[in-house]
């Protein structure tokens, strides 16, 4: 016995069992429910016993509801998520369909309460508060429930082990031989329609081969979910209540809502494609599946085409596991036949996959042709045209060229329709693109002109700065020259050939500087050991001496 901590989410763990806690709805989001005194039994050894609700799983639950305010106690049985159930006081052996008088409405909060309690048992109970009323609910039992087909085909396991088939048990597969017994009642008045005999004696059971279109679809689907020794009941709506109830074909339903009680006694499955011991048995199995598939394909109805696809797939798996040329040929034929069946069923993507599998081993005209048909059906006229062109190059069959011409016409028609439907849109988009390109070009030219103008201004500024720098350098040189002249001890420069300015009198350093545009003759260099020529020498009078007198 626990406190429900293992059953609720982390944010919903019960810290105080006496306090009310809000439940987060799982199925009906609008339900507002609070609970307390939550007691959940220990986890069962078999996981299928837990209440479950999903797209396929819909557990069948028996719950006890006590309403103290009304002093009422009631036990209801229902599939999770449904709003109609029945008064269910316990299991009746063998199964009997519920009476119309036992029909009860199932409030939505009861589905949420079953998911809250989750695991059945005497210890699985809680007090719930819904719309101001406090009630005590207990989850008594759960059974596996499956939605086999939409629009009303519910499966409820009555006996058996688990959702998954237990190890060592035999589950029905396609083409298995089995012995089973069943009973059928009309849902409107519980009138017994058919009984194959005692459901407890296997010798009175019906022997048949599964998935050979011998029974109503509800029976075949239910048998595939049972192992030997298990039983179930099936609720079938008028939509699916069509087909034979016996392999002989009679009686047959024509749109009747029924209840079916089914017991599976024995199952003998044929080996799987990979369970055959050698290539010989694998090839025999592939040939047999090919023949079976062809027979179902010839019937042409949707269910038979689906069976043909399954037979071809089994044969292809066996052929793929074998070696040799015959195995490769069988694999190719099985894939091509399967592609044709998928085309008939309208499963074009699956048909393309099978053709791709064939073409992966080498070119094949049929594979190209059937893939082109699938692509044409999907509106891929370009891909279909490519496949047909490739096939037409390898074959002179006029049917290929006719189909190619047809696809080319469809492609042109598709282009014309697109042009008419979206021509205005495309033209508008084209104009918008042209306008955008024009604006971008103008902006680019404007930026280029601005950049050129800026470069010219920078060049002018550089020239101006260079001229100023030259003037500054000349002034500094002139100033240095004047200072050197003033400090020099050499004779003053010869200004004899300098033409004096008649301008106003200059003062300061400027007055000492020579006039502009004048040539200053530097003083000649000093001459050392210079000897005057003799002809330039003047005769000097000899000094008078005492003797000369």
TrEMBL record:
Region of interest called Disordered, as start-end residue ranges on this chain: 408-549
Quote the biased-composition stretches of kind Pro residues, using this chain's numbering: 513-527
Taxonomic lineage per UniProt? Eukaryota, Sar, Alveolata, Dinophyceae, Suessiales
Q: Check the record and name the Gene3D superfamilies matching this protein.
A: Tetratricopeptide repeat domain
**Stored SUPFAM superfamilies:** TPR-like
Protein known as:
Peptidylprolyl isomerase
Amino acid composition bias (Basic and acidic residues), ranges on this chain: 427-478, 486-497
Species per Swiss-Prot/TrEMBL record: Durusdinium trenchii
Q: Which InterPro entries match?
A: FKBP4/5/8-like (IPR050754), TPR-like_helical_dom_sf (IPR011990)
Coiled-coil zones? none
Superkingdom per UniProt: Eukaryota
């Amino acid at each position: 016995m626990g406190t429900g901590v293992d059953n609720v989410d982390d944010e919903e763990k019960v810290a105080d069992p006496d306090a009310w806690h809000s439940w987060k709805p799982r199925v009906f989001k609008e339900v507002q429910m609070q609970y307390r005194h939550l007691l959940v039994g220990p986890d069962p050894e078999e996981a299928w016993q837990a209440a479950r609700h999903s797209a396929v799983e819909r557990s069948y639950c028996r719950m006890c509801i006590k309403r103290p305010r009304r002093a009422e106690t009631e036990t209801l049985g229902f599939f999770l998520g449904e709003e109609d159930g029945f008064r269910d006081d316990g299991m009746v052996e063998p199964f009997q369909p519920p009476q119309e008088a036992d029909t009860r409405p199932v409030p939505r909060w009861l589905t949420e309460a079953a998911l809250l309690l989750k695991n059945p048992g005497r210890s699985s109970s809680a007090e719930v508060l819904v719309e101001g009323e406090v009630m005590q609910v207990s989850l008594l039992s759960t059974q596996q429930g499956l939605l086999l087909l939409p629009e009303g085909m519910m499966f409820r396991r009555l006996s058996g082990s688990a959702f998954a088939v237990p190890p060592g048990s035999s589950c029905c597969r396609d083409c298995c031989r089995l012995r089973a017994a069943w009973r059928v009642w009309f849902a409107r008045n519980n009138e017994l329609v058919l009984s194959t005999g005692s459901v407890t004696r296997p010798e009175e059971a019906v022997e048949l081969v599964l998935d050979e279109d011998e029974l109503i679809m509800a029976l075949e689907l239910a048998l595939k979910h049972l192992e030997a020794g298990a039983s179930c009941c099936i609720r079938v709506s008028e939509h699916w209540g069509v087909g034979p109830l016996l392999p002989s074909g009679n009686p047959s339903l024509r749109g009747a809502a029924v209840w079916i009680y089914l017991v599976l006694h024995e199952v003998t499955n044929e080996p799987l494609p990979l369970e055959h011991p050698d290539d010989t048995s694998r090839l025999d199995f592939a040939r047999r599946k090919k023949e079976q598939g062809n027979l179902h394909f010839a019937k042409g109805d949707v269910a038979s085409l689906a069976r043909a696809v399954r037979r071809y797939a089994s044969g292809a798996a066996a052929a793929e596991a074998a070696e040799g040329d015959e195995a490769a040929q069988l694999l190719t034929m099985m894939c091509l036949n399967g592609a044709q069946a998928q085309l008939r069923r309208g499963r074009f993507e699956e048909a393309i996959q099978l053709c791709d599998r064939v073409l992966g081993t080498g070119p094949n005209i049929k594979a190209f042709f059937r893939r082109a048909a699938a692509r044409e059906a999907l509106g891929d006229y370009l891909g279909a045209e490519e496949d047909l062109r490739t096939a037409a190059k390898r074959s002179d069959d006029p049917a290929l060229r006719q189909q190619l011409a047809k696809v080319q016409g469809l492609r042109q028609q598709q282009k014309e329709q697109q042009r008419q439907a979206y021509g205005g849109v495309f033209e508008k988009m084209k104009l918008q693109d042209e306008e955008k390109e024009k604006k971008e070009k103008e902006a680019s030219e404007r930026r280029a002109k601005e950049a050129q103008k800026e470069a010219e201004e920078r060049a002018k500024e550089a020239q101006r700065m260079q001229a100023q720098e030259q003037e500054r350098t000349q002034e500094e040189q002139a100033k240095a020259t004047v200072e050197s002249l003033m400090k020099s001890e050499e004779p003053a420069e010869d200004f004899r050939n300098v033409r004096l300015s008649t301008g106003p009198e200059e003062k300061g350093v400027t007055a000492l500087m020579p006039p502009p545009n004048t040539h200053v003759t530097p003083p000649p260099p000093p001459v050392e050991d210079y000897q005057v020529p003799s002809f330039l020498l003047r005769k000097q009078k000899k000094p008078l001496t005492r003797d000369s007198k």
